[in-house]
Amino acid sequence: MLLIWLWFKLDDQKLQKTFAWINVVAVIVGFWVFYGVSHPAGTLATWFLVVNWVNVVIAILQFYFGYRKAN
Questions:
Q1: pLDDT tens-digit series, residues 8-20
Q2: Predicted structure pTM score
Q3: CB-CB contact of 59 with 27 (8 Å)
């Protein structure tokens, strides 16, 4: 839902920068939890890893839209 809302706010660079840095923290914590906690291999672990990588892509897009030069 957040991704859809931010997609319509591409011109708000301050908002994009803020959420990009929040996503960086979420990615660090997400991977730290994933690799720091012993867990059985299973569907939930796989989906947790997928969500972390999707969050990496979203953060990259937010950094792009947050730090690009305005025309």
A1: 777 788 888 888 8
A2: 0.76
A3: yes
